[in-house]
Amino acid sequence: MTSEPNLSNVVTSGTALSAALWDFDGTLADTEPLWVAAEFELVEGLGASWDEAHAEQLVGNSLLDSGAYILEVIGRQDLTPAWVVEQLLGRVVEQLRSRPIPWRPGALELLASFGEAGIPCALVSASYRVLLEAVFEQLPDGAFTVSVAGDEVSRGKPHPEPYLSACAKLGVHPTNCVVFEDSSTGARAGNAAGALVLAVENLVPIPPAPNRLHIPSLAELDAGRVAALLDGWHGA
What we know:
This protein is α/β, with parallel strands linked by helices. 43% of the residues lie in helices and 10% in strands. The protein has a six-stranded parallel sheet with strand order 3-2-1-4-5-6, sandwiched between helices.
């Protein structure tokens, strides 16, 4: 676990885009169906029932919160959230390592555009380090300058700590960053950190909020367009 990120020595740099901060599940990659399938397999293996409405409640949550929710729904207080997380992670990581990752439309192209523009990217995920390592095996070297996993923070999304930690690692100020998110929980975390959130909905709706722009698809963006959106936000 990390201590509270220290941004006291980080100085804002006008309206320049300093970094792009990416959620993983459902934003960079279309992996939410893998998690949902793992939930159904686990719950049904425990002799209980699960449904899509319950699955949608977990989108964007910390894994331990998701584990606790599952146990509450199925009435299995003899098990622990950590055990549930271990079971789900094992299933999803196996899927990621055994087949190509299903990237979201435009995600890899936008990552490449940031690289060409010299804008660093951070991967900020509720998923644990073991899953992120499986992801990096299928990404170009250097696609992400830093990463923050869910098991490396004390407080997960919607708390701002994951995004603040990424900014501290990069030496940038959140107000000079954009956050890409596909869930309300993650969008709240990015906004609480002080960043402009570009909400790209996938399985669940993201409500409107200050300092949040809804983008239909990552395929509509490149580094220049994102920088212009941030400049417009600063000038609003």
